[in-house]
Amino acid sequence: xxxxxxxxxxxxxxxxxxxxxxxxxxxxxxxxxxxxxxxxxxxxxxxxxxxxxxxxxxxxxxxxxxxxxxxxxxxxxxxxxxxxxxxxxxxxxxxxxxxxxxxxxxxxxxxxxxxxxxxxxxxxxxxxxxxxxxxxxxxxxxxxxxxxxxxxxxxxxxxxxxxxxxxxxxxxxxxxxxxxxxxxxxxxxxxxxxxxxxxxxxxxxxxxxxxxxxxxxxxxxxxxxxxxxxxxxxxxxxxxxxxxxxxxxxxxxxxxxxxxxxxxxxxxxxxxxxxxxxxxxxxxxxxxxxxxxxxxxxxxxxxxxxxxxxxxxxxxxxxxxxxxxxxxxxxxxxxxxxxxxxxxxxxxxxxxxxxxxxxxxxxxxxxxxxxxxxxxxxxxxxxxxxxxxxxxxxxxxxxxxxxxxxxxxxxxxxxxxxxxxxxxxxxxxxxxxxxxxxxxxxxxxxxxxxxxxxxxxxxxxxxxxxxxxxxxxxxxxxxxxxxxxxxxxxxxxxxxxxxxxxxxxxxxxxxxxxxxxxxxxxxxxxxxxxxxxxxxxxxxxxxxxxxxxxxxxxxxxxxxxxxxxxxxxxxxxxxxxxxxxxx
Length: 583
Ligand SMILES: [Zn+2]
Known about the structure:
Layout: H1 2-15, E1 50-60, E2 65-75, E3 96-106, E4 114-118, E5 121-126, E6 136-137, E7 141-142, E8 158-167, E9 171-174, E10 177-178, H2 181-184, H3 187-196, E11 203-206, E12 219-229, E13 234-237, E14 241-248, E15 251-259, H4 275-289, E16 297-303, E17 307-310, E18 313-317, H5 322-334, H6 336-341, H7 350-369, H8 379-387, H9 405-425, H10 427-441, H11 448-459, H12 464-472, E19 479-489, E20 492-499, E21 507-513, E22 518-523, E23 533-539, E24 545-550, E25 565-567
Parallel strand pairs: 1-8, 15-16, 16-18
Antiparallel strand pairs: 1-2, 2-3, 4-5, 5-13, 6-7, 8-12, 9-13, 10-12, 11-14, 14-15, 17-18, 19-20, 20-23, 21-22, 21-24, 24-25
Helix pairs in contact: 4-5, 5-7, 7-9, 9-10, 10-11
């Protein structure tokens, strides 16, 4: 069997060169109309509905329940009647509706929310804690895909007023801003909070030794307001230390950390004591690179939740070393841009938030620690694509095979956008287009085609082949040296490169000459529009080729690198055999 397999693979690599032309066929974008333009921009008829909430609940620490009432103001901006609100009459364009209801929820022990059992008391982390109106949009109408777990959330923006009644010794963190500090904070805490708004050095607003010895019997109501957010989350605990400082002197975003004693650190190993600093770094880094952070607070809560993002607030697990805490904090704060500001459909397109977020995290992590994180090489893609029949990135997260979500929603798309930025478009051109995407779609809901269209529009590049190879399809990639004229022939040197698989990429050659000189050559991806082999020729100018390497930086996920190198036969015995010469 082994011999047969070997023969088949030799035969395949020699003969079965892929015909890649069809990967260049134009992609027919769906939904191009006055709502969403062919350029990828929102059109003149773009609309989205809006859902604002006033919510009032009480936390039952014994019963582990939140119970209360809400009023939802639903603004309908779509230009047609909305029949299925299950009301006596449809909701007409421009009309709004007020829903009032009472609700209660038992807090599950862990997941995207939960309860941490700290030595000084429980940490309650609350998310998805109130009845929320589904998203109705121009693409799918009511978004009625059920929540199965891996596909996250897709909701409308709105303004929130939140009243949280909790035991009087609790400290509360919530999306948005605290608006009744006079009623819930001590004079000393108010003074420290005011100080935190003036400095980038972390101020401790409530320290561990200030936690009352006996649990309180009375209750207090904390009031928060959050504007233009897609949901709100909060946390409450008597065990919290509360740290805060602004992000930068000219960026008065209050970066906060709330955590129990189990997250306390030392001078040498600061653990959660550094959480404000990590938050400041992320908020500043992404504000400067992408777009200004638009919210007044950026809060991190330590507890049972491993890592989860909500508007202006993130939950990260308490037990982490510095790199891990930085990594998860930075990832969750990266989500403030995707999907909290650029409001994508997480139920269908996890790559649009997790993938793009992991991509931006690569640069943030590298900047902070001076070395890249996990999105550093193509090897993990090569390994994965070799090992099984892969699914495309464009797979709904709940349809991704078990265990593959980290690859398909995070790692592979993050790497794809690195390739697009660092290899295909170049950093300046990519960044200009990427920022345009964020400008166009901040506080709106883009579809995948709006991202693709904007990147092409603003970069001035046809990238259909890239979206098709990397995102729509699970195409494999394999270039190899097919033929070579290492000595001048009619005055020219020539390297013929073959494309053996479906994915196409530009050709990147490193050439070493026998005279010791060397150079790099780049051939645009259009080399492959008319066939699967391409001869790169250039004037010899008296030189001969000693060595050629395709993709010398190993940036591309080439599933067979053995045929990427050609070396002239040397006279000494240690020299390697020429590889993949087929003339
Ligand atoms: Zn994430």
